[in-house]
């Protein structure tokens, strides 16, 4: 018969697994970023996907004080901050991969430390080909956001979906 379909036994089945998505959760020691890490791991448990928790620690004393990572006058050691954050993350997301980055200061002329942190998060997101970023921010998505927020610039990148966590477990 012309146009007759072959029997089902003659049709090869394509056997492939869907590509695994990587989920990224930037962590800066804040309650909201910790809540974002928790949400990313909950989502990963449901979907069976890996989570990468990224800490970006600039070598900038003033920035570290502003973020509450160190006290005024205390010596800033980015490696110590990253180690402390890794320990905090391991308590709530032991199966996540922890990654610490130090942005290259002055990589972009006129960039602020926040710009450097944002650029580093975006670069890692592209490198890992993440499908979703979990951002802890009470400012992302607002019409007016403070210059100290990385949430809004991260949420504007169309390369990945973004889940904005605005409430910590303590709220």
Note down, in words, how this protein is organized:
The structure is a single chain. This protein is an alpha/beta fold and 171 residues long. It is 35% helix and 15% strand. It has five helices and five strands, in the order βαβααβαβαβ. It has helices spanning 31-47, 61-66, 78-92, 113-128, 151-155, and strands at 23-26, 51-56, 97-101, 132-136, 161-165. A five-stranded parallel beta sheet has the order 3-2-1-4-5, with helices on both faces. Helix 5 (151-155) links the parallel strand 4 and strand 5 (161-165). It is globular and about 45 Å long.
Quick recap:
Helix content is 35%, strand content 15%.
- Helix and strand element order: EHEHHEHEHE
Structural class: alpha/beta
Question: Can you list the strand order of the major beta sheet?
Answer: 3-2-1-4-5
**Proportion of strand residues:** 5-15%
Helix content: 25-40%
Poorly predicted spans: 1-18, 140-149
What is the mean pLDDT?
Answer: 79
Which helices and strands appear, and what pairs or packs with what?
Layout: E1 23-26, H1 31-47, E2 51-56, H2 61-66, H3 78-92, E3 97-101, H4 113-128, E4 132-136, H5 151-155, E5 161-165
Parallel strand pairs: 1-2, 1-4, 2-3, 4-5
